[in-house]
Design a protein that fits this description.
Blueprint: E1 2-7, H1 11-25, E2 30-31, E3 39-44, H2 49-62, E4 73-77, H3 78-84, H4 87-91, E5 95-99, H5 107-115, E6 122-124, H6 140-143, E7 149-153, E8 155-156, H7 167-170, E9 175-176, H8 179-191, E10 196-200, H9 218-226, E11 233-237, H10 246-254, E12 261-263, H11 271-277, H12 283-296, E13 301-308, H13 315-328, E14 332-337, H14 355-379, E15 384-392, E16 401-406, E17 412-417, E18 427-435, E19 440-444
Parallel strand pairs: 1-2, 1-3, 3-4, 4-5, 5-6, 7-10, 10-11, 12-13, 13-14, 17-19
Antiparallel strand pairs: 8-9, 15-16, 15-18, 16-17, 18-19
Helix pairs in contact: 10-12, 13-14
The structure holds iron/sulfur cluster (SF4).
Protein backbone atom coordinates (compact mmCIF):
# COMPACT_ATOMS: atom_id res chain seq x y z
CA UNK A 1 0.00 0.00 0.00
CA UNK A 2 1.15 3.53 -0.74
CA UNK A 3 0.43 6.07 1.98
CA UNK A 4 0.82 9.80 2.39
CA UNK A 5 0.93 11.34 5.85
CA UNK A 6 0.26 14.99 6.70
CA UNK A 7 1.12 16.40 10.09
CA UNK A 8 -0.24 19.49 11.81
CA UNK A 9 0.64 21.04 15.15
CA UNK A 10 3.10 20.24 17.85
CA UNK A 11 6.29 18.27 18.19
CA UNK A 12 4.38 15.37 19.71
CA UNK A 13 2.37 15.05 16.52
CA UNK A 14 5.54 15.18 14.43
CA UNK A 15 6.97 12.38 16.52
CA UNK A 16 3.73 10.35 16.35
CA UNK A 17 3.78 10.67 12.56
CA UNK A 18 7.39 9.51 12.39
CA UNK A 19 6.49 6.47 14.46
CA UNK A 20 3.40 5.69 12.37
CA UNK A 21 5.44 5.99 9.19
CA UNK A 22 8.03 3.54 10.49
CA UNK A 23 5.35 1.14 11.75
CA UNK A 24 3.66 1.09 8.32
CA UNK A 25 6.95 0.77 6.47
CA UNK A 26 7.88 -2.21 8.60
CA UNK A 27 4.63 -3.81 7.31
CA UNK A 28 5.80 -3.28 3.74
CA UNK A 29 3.80 -0.11 3.11
CA UNK A 30 5.46 2.62 1.12
CA UNK A 31 5.44 6.40 1.56
CA UNK A 32 4.26 8.11 -1.61
CA UNK A 33 3.64 11.59 -2.95
CA UNK A 34 0.12 12.85 -2.53
CA UNK A 35 -0.85 12.22 -6.19
CA UNK A 36 0.07 8.52 -5.98
CA UNK A 37 -1.12 7.54 -2.51
CA UNK A 38 -3.88 5.03 -1.79
CA UNK A 39 -4.19 5.92 1.90
CA UNK A 40 -4.07 9.42 3.37
CA UNK A 41 -3.31 9.97 7.03
CA UNK A 42 -3.92 13.34 8.63
CA UNK A 43 -2.36 13.76 12.04
CA UNK A 44 -4.17 16.79 13.35
CA UNK A 45 -4.06 19.53 15.95
CA UNK A 46 -6.88 21.52 17.52
CA UNK A 47 -4.96 23.79 19.84
CA UNK A 48 -5.99 26.71 17.70
CA UNK A 49 -8.84 27.23 15.33
CA UNK A 50 -6.96 27.51 12.07
CA UNK A 51 -5.31 24.06 12.07
CA UNK A 52 -8.76 22.52 12.62
CA UNK A 53 -10.21 24.31 9.61
CA UNK A 54 -7.17 23.26 7.66
CA UNK A 55 -8.11 19.60 8.22
CA UNK A 56 -11.50 20.13 6.59
CA UNK A 57 -9.88 21.98 3.71
CA UNK A 58 -7.31 19.23 3.25
CA UNK A 59 -9.94 16.49 3.30
CA UNK A 60 -11.94 18.40 0.69
CA UNK A 61 -8.82 18.58 -1.45
CA UNK A 62 -7.93 14.90 -1.01
CA UNK A 63 -11.50 13.93 -1.98
CA UNK A 64 -10.62 14.93 -5.55
CA UNK A 65 -8.33 11.88 -5.79
CA UNK A 66 -11.40 9.63 -5.58
CA UNK A 67 -11.78 10.32 -9.31
CA UNK A 68 -8.36 8.74 -9.88
CA UNK A 69 -9.04 5.78 -7.61
CA UNK A 70 -12.45 5.27 -5.95
CA UNK A 71 -10.83 2.95 -3.37
CA UNK A 72 -8.58 5.53 -1.77
CA UNK A 73 -9.36 6.21 1.87
CA UNK A 74 -8.25 8.51 4.66
CA UNK A 75 -7.54 8.35 8.38
CA UNK A 76 -7.77 11.29 10.75
CA UNK A 77 -5.75 11.11 13.93
CA UNK A 78 -4.57 13.47 16.66
CA UNK A 79 -6.63 16.04 18.52
CA UNK A 80 -9.20 16.83 15.82
CA UNK A 81 -9.62 13.10 15.21
CA UNK A 82 -10.39 12.67 18.90
CA UNK A 83 -12.72 15.66 19.13
CA UNK A 84 -14.73 15.33 15.95
CA UNK A 85 -14.51 11.52 16.02
CA UNK A 86 -17.09 9.51 14.12
CA UNK A 87 -18.69 12.67 12.70
CA UNK A 88 -15.92 12.54 10.10
CA UNK A 89 -17.45 9.35 8.69
CA UNK A 90 -20.64 11.08 7.60
CA UNK A 91 -19.07 14.36 6.55
CA UNK A 92 -16.30 12.71 4.48
CA UNK A 93 -17.36 9.13 3.62
CA UNK A 94 -13.88 8.22 2.41
CA UNK A 95 -12.57 8.71 5.97
CA UNK A 96 -12.49 5.15 7.30
CA UNK A 97 -10.40 5.51 10.44
CA UNK A 98 -10.45 8.06 13.24
CA UNK A 99 -8.02 7.76 16.11
CA UNK A 100 -7.00 9.84 19.10
CA UNK A 101 -3.58 9.99 20.69
CA UNK A 102 -4.39 7.03 22.94
CA UNK A 103 -5.60 5.11 19.90
CA UNK A 104 -2.51 5.61 17.77
CA UNK A 105 -0.80 2.49 19.12
CA UNK A 106 -3.44 0.42 17.31
CA UNK A 107 -3.64 2.58 14.18
CA UNK A 108 -1.18 0.52 12.05
CA UNK A 109 -3.22 -2.67 12.60
CA UNK A 110 -6.45 -0.80 11.92
CA UNK A 111 -5.09 0.64 8.67
CA UNK A 112 -3.97 -2.79 7.58
CA UNK A 113 -7.33 -4.31 8.28
CA UNK A 114 -9.12 -1.49 6.40
CA UNK A 115 -6.79 -1.89 3.43
CA UNK A 116 -7.57 -5.60 3.32
CA UNK A 117 -11.28 -4.78 3.38
CA UNK A 118 -11.74 -6.73 6.61
CA UNK A 119 -13.60 -3.82 8.13
CA UNK A 120 -15.59 -0.86 6.83
CA UNK A 121 -14.77 1.79 9.41
CA UNK A 122 -12.81 1.90 12.65
CA UNK A 123 -12.86 4.43 15.50
CA UNK A 124 -10.05 4.27 18.06
CA UNK A 125 -11.24 6.95 20.44
CA UNK A 126 -11.19 5.40 23.91
CA UNK A 127 -8.98 6.96 26.53
CA UNK A 128 -6.82 4.61 28.54
CA UNK A 129 -5.51 4.95 32.09
CA UNK A 130 -1.98 3.85 31.43
CA UNK A 131 0.53 4.61 28.70
CA UNK A 132 0.02 2.13 25.85
CA UNK A 133 3.41 0.91 24.68
CA UNK A 134 3.75 1.00 20.93
CA UNK A 135 5.33 -1.66 18.79
CA UNK A 136 8.96 -1.01 17.93
CA UNK A 137 9.28 -0.86 14.15
CA UNK A 138 11.90 -3.34 12.92
CA UNK A 139 14.13 -0.63 11.56
CA UNK A 140 13.91 1.63 14.59
CA UNK A 141 17.09 3.47 13.66
CA UNK A 142 15.43 4.69 10.49
CA UNK A 143 12.56 6.23 12.39
CA UNK A 144 14.67 9.26 13.08
CA UNK A 145 16.40 10.97 10.22
CA UNK A 146 20.06 11.18 9.33
CA UNK A 147 20.54 14.25 11.47
CA UNK A 148 20.86 11.89 14.40
CA UNK A 149 18.24 13.65 16.49
CA UNK A 150 15.41 11.69 18.05
CA UNK A 151 12.29 12.29 20.11
CA UNK A 152 11.20 9.91 22.84
CA UNK A 153 7.77 10.00 24.48
CA UNK A 154 7.88 9.81 28.25
CA UNK A 155 4.20 10.44 28.91
CA UNK A 156 0.93 11.33 27.29
CA UNK A 157 -1.99 13.60 28.20
CA UNK A 158 -2.34 16.28 30.82
CA UNK A 159 -4.18 16.77 34.13
CA UNK A 160 -3.93 20.54 34.35
CA UNK A 161 -7.06 21.81 32.63
CA UNK A 162 -5.76 25.29 31.87
CA UNK A 163 -8.94 27.14 31.03
CA UNK A 164 -8.06 27.77 27.36
CA UNK A 165 -6.68 24.35 26.48
CA UNK A 166 -8.23 21.31 24.82
CA UNK A 167 -5.38 18.92 25.53
CA UNK A 168 -6.87 17.20 28.62
CA UNK A 169 -10.01 16.56 26.51
CA UNK A 170 -8.25 15.44 23.35
CA UNK A 171 -5.18 13.66 24.71
CA UNK A 172 -6.73 12.43 27.90
CA UNK A 173 -5.40 12.39 31.43
CA UNK A 174 -1.73 12.20 32.18
CA UNK A 175 -0.10 8.78 31.95
CA UNK A 176 3.62 8.26 32.38
CA UNK A 177 5.64 5.66 30.62
CA UNK A 178 7.75 3.23 32.61
CA UNK A 179 11.23 4.75 33.13
CA UNK A 180 13.04 1.56 32.17
CA UNK A 181 11.25 1.48 28.83
CA UNK A 182 12.13 5.13 28.23
CA UNK A 183 15.80 4.49 29.03
CA UNK A 184 15.81 1.33 26.93
CA UNK A 185 14.41 3.17 23.90
CA UNK A 186 16.96 5.97 24.37
CA UNK A 187 19.81 3.47 24.68
CA UNK A 188 18.79 1.70 21.46
CA UNK A 189 18.59 5.00 19.61
CA UNK A 190 22.06 6.04 20.81
CA UNK A 191 23.42 2.64 19.80
CA UNK A 192 21.89 3.22 16.36
CA UNK A 193 23.81 6.50 16.05
CA UNK A 194 21.48 9.10 17.56
CA UNK A 195 23.40 11.92 19.28
CA UNK A 196 20.60 14.15 20.51
CA UNK A 197 17.43 13.06 22.29
CA UNK A 198 14.45 15.21 23.21
CA UNK A 199 12.19 13.74 25.89
CA UNK A 200 8.60 14.59 25.05
CA UNK A 201 5.48 15.05 27.11
CA UNK A 202 2.70 17.57 27.54
CA UNK A 203 3.99 18.40 31.00
CA UNK A 204 7.23 16.56 31.66
CA UNK A 205 7.70 18.12 35.09
CA UNK A 206 4.88 16.04 36.50
CA UNK A 207 6.29 12.83 35.04
CA UNK A 208 5.68 9.88 37.34
CA UNK A 209 2.95 11.58 39.35
CA UNK A 210 0.12 9.51 37.94
CA UNK A 211 -1.02 5.90 37.88
CA UNK A 212 1.87 4.98 35.58
CA UNK A 213 4.41 6.35 38.05
CA UNK A 214 6.78 3.94 39.77
CA UNK A 215 8.48 6.38 42.13
CA UNK A 216 10.95 7.77 39.59
CA UNK A 217 10.74 11.55 39.28
CA UNK A 218 11.45 13.54 36.14
CA UNK A 219 14.78 14.74 37.57
CA UNK A 220 15.77 11.13 38.21
CA UNK A 221 14.73 10.15 34.71
CA UNK A 222 16.86 12.97 33.29
CA UNK A 223 19.88 11.62 35.17
CA UNK A 224 19.18 8.07 33.98
CA UNK A 225 18.99 9.12 30.33
CA UNK A 226 21.92 11.54 30.55
CA UNK A 227 24.14 8.70 31.73
CA UNK A 228 23.73 6.71 28.52
CA UNK A 229 27.23 6.52 27.02
CA UNK A 230 27.47 8.29 23.66
CA UNK A 231 24.52 10.64 24.17
CA UNK A 232 25.87 14.09 23.29
CA UNK A 233 22.76 16.17 23.81
CA UNK A 234 19.66 15.82 25.91
CA UNK A 235 16.63 18.15 25.78
CA UNK A 236 13.07 17.98 27.01
CA UNK A 237 9.76 19.68 26.33
CA UNK A 238 7.21 20.87 27.47
CA UNK A 239 7.62 22.16 31.00
CA UNK A 240 4.87 23.59 33.17
CA UNK A 241 6.36 26.24 35.48
CA UNK A 242 4.19 25.25 38.43
CA UNK A 243 5.63 21.74 38.51
CA UNK A 244 9.32 22.33 37.87
CA UNK A 245 11.23 20.75 40.76
CA UNK A 246 14.44 22.20 42.27
CA UNK A 247 16.16 18.94 41.24
CA UNK A 248 15.27 19.57 37.59
CA UNK A 249 16.62 23.12 37.85
CA UNK A 250 19.82 21.81 39.45
CA UNK A 251 20.20 19.22 36.69
CA UNK A 252 21.04 22.07 34.29
CA UNK A 253 24.18 22.66 36.32
CA UNK A 254 24.94 18.98 36.94
CA UNK A 255 24.50 17.24 33.61
CA UNK A 256 27.02 18.18 30.93
CA UNK A 257 24.93 16.82 28.09
CA UNK A 258 21.70 18.51 29.20
CA UNK A 259 21.47 21.36 26.69
CA UNK A 260 21.41 24.96 27.98
CA UNK A 261 17.93 25.74 26.71
CA UNK A 262 14.49 25.52 28.20
CA UNK A 263 11.05 26.17 26.78
CA UNK A 264 9.01 27.39 29.74
CA UNK A 265 5.54 28.55 28.71
CA UNK A 266 4.66 31.74 30.59
CA UNK A 267 1.45 32.46 28.63
CA UNK A 268 0.85 35.88 30.25
CA UNK A 269 2.63 38.40 32.46
CA UNK A 270 -0.40 39.51 34.45
CA UNK A 271 -1.25 37.68 37.68
CA UNK A 272 -4.89 38.35 37.05
CA UNK A 273 -4.83 36.75 33.61
CA UNK A 274 -2.68 33.84 34.82
CA UNK A 275 -5.26 33.15 37.52
CA UNK A 276 -8.10 33.12 35.01
CA UNK A 277 -6.05 30.91 32.73
CA UNK A 278 -5.79 28.44 35.62
CA UNK A 279 -2.03 28.33 35.36
CA UNK A 280 -1.49 28.08 39.15
CA UNK A 281 1.63 30.27 39.29
CA UNK A 282 2.11 34.00 39.41
CA UNK A 283 4.75 36.29 37.96
CA UNK A 284 6.82 36.24 41.13
CA UNK A 285 7.02 32.45 41.11
CA UNK A 286 7.91 32.48 37.42
CA UNK A 287 10.70 35.03 37.99
CA UNK A 288 12.02 33.00 40.95
CA UNK A 289 12.26 29.94 38.71
CA UNK A 290 14.10 31.95 36.05
CA UNK A 291 16.54 33.22 38.68
CA UNK A 292 17.26 29.72 39.98
CA UNK A 293 17.67 28.40 36.45
CA UNK A 294 20.19 31.10 35.59
CA UNK A 295 22.08 30.43 38.81
CA UNK A 296 22.30 26.77 37.86
CA UNK A 297 23.20 27.50 34.23
CA UNK A 298 24.13 31.12 33.47
CA UNK A 299 24.15 30.58 29.69
CA UNK A 300 20.63 29.09 29.67
CA UNK A 301 18.51 30.20 26.73
CA UNK A 302 14.86 30.60 27.64
CA UNK A 303 11.98 30.46 25.19
CA UNK A 304 8.27 30.62 25.87
CA UNK A 305 4.65 30.52 24.69
CA UNK A 306 2.42 33.57 25.04
CA UNK A 307 -1.30 34.15 24.53
CA UNK A 308 -2.53 37.68 23.98
CA UNK A 309 -6.11 38.91 24.32
CA UNK A 310 -7.27 36.25 26.75
CA UNK A 311 -10.87 37.09 27.79
CA UNK A 312 -10.82 40.06 30.13
CA UNK A 313 -7.24 41.05 29.29
CA UNK A 314 -7.06 44.83 29.77
CA UNK A 315 -4.37 47.04 28.29
CA UNK A 316 -2.65 47.16 31.69
CA UNK A 317 -2.52 43.34 31.79
CA UNK A 318 -1.00 43.30 28.35
CA UNK A 319 1.55 45.94 29.38
CA UNK A 320 2.57 43.62 32.23
CA UNK A 321 3.13 40.84 29.71
CA UNK A 322 5.40 43.13 27.69
CA UNK A 323 7.31 44.01 30.87
CA UNK A 324 7.75 40.36 31.84
CA UNK A 325 8.93 39.44 28.35
CA UNK A 326 11.51 42.19 28.57
CA UNK A 327 12.56 41.35 32.11
CA UNK A 328 13.07 37.64 31.42
CA UNK A 329 14.66 38.31 28.04
CA UNK A 330 13.23 35.30 26.19
CA UNK A 331 15.35 34.42 23.19
CA UNK A 332 12.23 33.65 21.23
CA UNK A 333 8.58 32.97 21.78
CA UNK A 334 5.55 31.48 20.12
CA UNK A 335 2.76 34.00 20.51
CA UNK A 336 -0.87 33.69 19.53
CA UNK A 337 -4.16 35.49 19.85
CA UNK A 338 -6.56 33.72 22.17
CA UNK A 339 -9.26 31.79 20.33
CA UNK A 340 -12.22 29.89 21.81
CA UNK A 341 -11.83 26.13 21.61
CA UNK A 342 -15.02 24.08 22.03
CA UNK A 343 -15.64 22.79 25.52
CA UNK A 344 -12.95 24.68 27.42
CA UNK A 345 -13.78 26.89 30.43
CA UNK A 346 -12.53 30.14 28.89
CA UNK A 347 -15.28 30.01 26.25
CA UNK A 348 -17.68 31.31 28.90
CA UNK A 349 -15.31 34.02 30.13
CA UNK A 350 -16.05 37.62 29.22
CA UNK A 351 -15.45 40.22 27.99
CA UNK A 352 -13.81 38.93 24.85
CA UNK A 353 -11.14 41.22 23.47
CA UNK A 354 -12.06 42.87 20.17
CA UNK A 355 -10.27 41.31 17.18
CA UNK A 356 -8.56 44.57 16.13
CA UNK A 357 -7.26 45.11 19.67
CA UNK A 358 -6.01 41.50 19.79
CA UNK A 359 -4.25 41.88 16.44
CA UNK A 360 -2.60 45.10 17.58
CA UNK A 361 -1.39 43.51 20.82
CA UNK A 362 0.05 40.53 19.00
CA UNK A 363 1.94 42.82 16.64
CA UNK A 364 3.34 44.90 19.50
CA UNK A 365 4.42 41.79 21.37
CA UNK A 366 6.06 40.28 18.31
CA UNK A 367 7.90 43.52 17.56
CA UNK A 368 9.27 43.57 21.09
CA UNK A 369 10.24 39.90 20.82
CA UNK A 370 12.06 40.53 17.54
CA UNK A 371 14.14 43.26 19.23
CA UNK A 372 15.01 41.00 22.15
CA UNK A 373 15.82 38.07 19.85
CA UNK A 374 18.18 40.29 17.85
CA UNK A 375 19.96 41.42 21.03
CA UNK A 376 20.29 37.84 22.32
CA UNK A 377 21.72 36.64 19.02
CA UNK A 378 24.14 39.58 18.88
CA UNK A 379 25.54 38.52 22.24
CA UNK A 380 26.53 35.22 20.70
CA UNK A 381 29.02 36.85 18.32
CA UNK A 382 32.53 35.81 19.32
CA UNK A 383 31.40 32.74 21.30
CA UNK A 384 32.29 29.17 20.36
CA UNK A 385 30.08 26.12 20.36
CA UNK A 386 29.51 22.83 18.58
CA UNK A 387 26.91 22.73 15.84
CA UNK A 388 25.02 19.50 15.15
CA UNK A 389 24.57 19.63 11.39
CA UNK A 390 21.08 19.07 10.01
CA UNK A 391 21.72 19.63 6.31
CA UNK A 392 22.87 22.03 3.65
CA UNK A 393 21.76 25.65 3.91
CA UNK A 394 19.19 26.73 1.45
CA UNK A 395 21.29 29.73 0.61
CA UNK A 396 24.58 28.97 -1.09
CA UNK A 397 26.61 32.13 -0.69
CA UNK A 398 29.90 32.84 -2.49
CA UNK A 399 32.26 29.89 -2.84
CA UNK A 400 32.13 26.73 -0.75
CA UNK A 401 29.10 24.98 0.63
CA UNK A 402 27.01 26.34 3.48
CA UNK A 403 25.67 23.96 6.08
CA UNK A 404 22.92 24.47 8.63
CA UNK A 405 22.77 23.06 12.11
CA UNK A 406 21.97 23.90 15.70
CA UNK A 407 24.17 24.98 18.55
CA UNK A 408 23.77 23.47 22.00
CA UNK A 409 20.87 25.81 22.84
CA UNK A 410 19.07 24.98 19.60
CA UNK A 411 19.85 28.20 17.71
CA UNK A 412 20.19 27.86 13.94
CA UNK A 413 23.79 28.33 12.81
CA UNK A 414 24.95 28.44 9.17
CA UNK A 415 28.61 28.01 8.32
CA UNK A 416 30.75 27.36 5.29
CA UNK A 417 32.71 24.18 4.72
CA UNK A 418 34.86 22.76 1.93
CA UNK A 419 33.00 21.03 -0.87
CA UNK A 420 32.86 17.27 -1.15
CA UNK A 421 32.29 16.51 2.54
CA UNK A 422 29.04 15.18 3.95
CA UNK A 423 28.53 16.78 7.34
CA UNK A 424 24.95 15.69 8.07
CA UNK A 425 24.79 14.40 11.62
CA UNK A 426 28.30 15.60 12.43
CA UNK A 427 29.25 17.96 15.23
CA UNK A 428 31.32 20.89 13.96
CA UNK A 429 33.07 23.36 16.28
CA UNK A 430 32.36 26.93 15.18
CA UNK A 431 32.90 30.50 16.29
CA UNK A 432 29.95 32.81 15.76
CA UNK A 433 30.85 35.72 13.50
CA UNK A 434 27.52 37.27 12.46
CA UNK A 435 24.10 37.52 14.08
CA UNK A 436 21.18 37.68 11.65
CA UNK A 437 17.54 38.34 12.46
CA UNK A 438 16.68 34.79 13.46
CA UNK A 439 19.90 32.84 13.00
CA UNK A 440 23.66 32.95 13.35
CA UNK A 441 26.58 32.62 10.98
CA UNK A 442 29.66 30.83 12.21
CA UNK A 443 33.08 29.87 10.99
CA UNK A 444 34.59 26.49 11.61
CA UNK A 445 37.27 26.31 14.29
CA UNK A 446 38.03 22.60 14.37
CA UNK A 447 37.53 19.19 12.85
CA UNK A 448 34.06 17.67 12.57
CA UNK A 449 33.43 14.77 14.92
S1 LIG B 1 -0.53 22.32 31.00
FE1 LIG B 1 -2.35 23.51 30.43
S2 LIG B 1 -1.81 24.32 28.41
FE2 LIG B 1 -0.40 22.63 28.79
S3 LIG B 1 -1.38 20.84 27.90
FE3 LIG B 1 -1.97 20.86 30.04
S4 LIG B 1 -3.93 21.97 30.05
FE4 LIG B 1 -2.96 22.40 28.07
Amino acid sequence: MKFHIMTFGCQMNVHDSQWLTAALESRGWEQAPEEEAQVYILNTCSVREKPEQKVYTELGRIGVYLKRDPNIFAAVGGCVGQQVGKAFFSRFPFVKLVFGTDGIANAPNALESLAEGAEERIALLDFVDVYLEREVPQDASRVEHATRQAFVNIMQGCDNFCTYCVVPYTRGRQKSRHPELVVEECRKLVQAGVREITLLGQNVNSYGLDKGGVGVTFAQLLHMVAEIPGLDRLRFTTSHPKDIAPEVIRAFGELDNLCPSLHLPMQAGSDDVLRRMGRKYDCKRYLDIVKSLREARPDLSLTTDLIVAFPGEAEKDFQQTLEMVEQVGFESSFSFKYSDRPGVAAVKMTPKVAPDVAADRLLRLQNLQNDITRKCLKKRVGTEDNVLVEGKSRKQEDEGVYWRGRDSAGRVVNFRFDEGVDLEGMMVPVRIVVAKKHSLVGERTGEPW
